[in-house]
């Protein structure tokens, strides 16, 4: 197997570094940033950053503002609505297939993980439990979408997931919501376990709509 070409490695490292710093809030939605500042942030050469910019612009993570430069995606109501609508389109279809393909053991593992963190949260929520709950939350949704086995969908969903995480950081985090969110997830898991695709889809849609309304403060 040949080694990966160095320019490709640099492009991927630049992308990984950018998204990691974005999600770590080293850079913020709405912030203006230059290519030179991205070089300093990522520690990668200017050439890699120049190749990074068209990709993150195409993905909607930055936009070019005339006479002002590059701006990190601003979290506004339009982005919230679009990101959640995208989730609905993808996850509704994905869960209907997941109902048919998920093993009993996989469903049981998801239920056990959710029940464990719910029990901990009911006993007293801590930042560590909230972080674990957030990981379990993302894990269930990613597992459902990955079950499609479609690389194009998975990649598009991954980009949207970055936007979803930004939305949660800016507008609504799982902090204080561990118990209701875990209970909503357990209802989804119960619906999946019935092997009824319509019931599973309806339960998932209800959950995503509740999350959207929290983000929109409805």
How does this model look, in words?
The chain has 218 residues and is mainly α. The protein has helices spanning 6-23, 35-42, 46-58, 77-101, 104-123, 127-146, 151-170, 178-193, 197-216, and strands spanning 32-33, 62-65, 69-72. α6 (127-146) packs parallel to α8. The chain is globular and about 55 Å long. The termini are far apart. The relative contact order is 0.12.
Kindly estimate the percentage of residues that lie in beta strands according to DSSP: under 5%
CATH topology of the largest domain: Four Helix Bundle (Hemerythrin (Met), subunit A)
- Tell me which CATH architecture of the largest domain applies here: Up-down Bundle
**Fraction of residues in H or I helices:** over 70%
Number of H/I helices: 9
Number of strands: 3
- First-to-last CA distance: 53 Å
Largest sheet strand order? 1-3-2
Q: Summarize the biggest pleated sheet.
A: 3 strands, antiparallel
Relevant CATH superfamily of the largest domain:
GntR ligand-binding domain-like
Task: Give the uncertain stretches in residue-range form.
Answer: none
The averaged pLDDT comes out at 91
* Shape verdict: globular
Number of domains: 2
Structural class: mainly alpha
Order of helices and strands: HEHHEEHHHHHH
What is the CATH C-level name of the largest domain?
Mainly Alpha
The radius of gyration is 19 Å
Identify the notable features of this structure and list them briefly.
Four Helix Bundle (Hemerythrin (Met), subunit A); globular; mainly alpha; 218 residues; 3-stranded antiparallel sheet; Arc Repressor Mutant, subunit A; 73% helix
């Amino acid at each position: 197997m040949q080694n990966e070409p160095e320019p490709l490695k640099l492009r991927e490292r630049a992308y990984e570094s950018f998204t990691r710093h974005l999600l770590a809030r080293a850079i913020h939605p709405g912030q203006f940033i230059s290519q030179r500042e991205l070089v300093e942030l990522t520690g990668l050469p200017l050439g890699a950053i120049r190749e990074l910019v068209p990709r993150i612009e195409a993905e909607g993570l930055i936009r070019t503002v005339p006479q002002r430069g590059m701006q990190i995606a601003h979290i506004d109501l339009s982005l919230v609505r679009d990101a959640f609508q995208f989730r609905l389109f993808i996850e509704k279809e994905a869960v209907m297939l997941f109902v048919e393909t998920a093993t009993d053991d996989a469903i049981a593992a998801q239920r056990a993980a959710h029940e464990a963190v719910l029990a901990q949260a009911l006993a007293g929520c801590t930042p560590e439990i909230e972080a674990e709950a957030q990981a379990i939350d993302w894990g269930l949704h990613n597992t459902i979408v990955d079950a499609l086995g479609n690389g194009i969908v998975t990649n598009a969903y991954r980009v949207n997931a970055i936007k979803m995480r930004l939305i949660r950081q800016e507008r609504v985090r799982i902090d204080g919501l561990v118990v209701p969110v875990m209970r909503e997830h357990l209802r989804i898991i119960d619906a999946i376990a019935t092997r009824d695709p319509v019931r599973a889809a309806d339960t998932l849609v209800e959950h995503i709509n509740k999350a959207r309304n929290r983000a929109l403060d409805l």
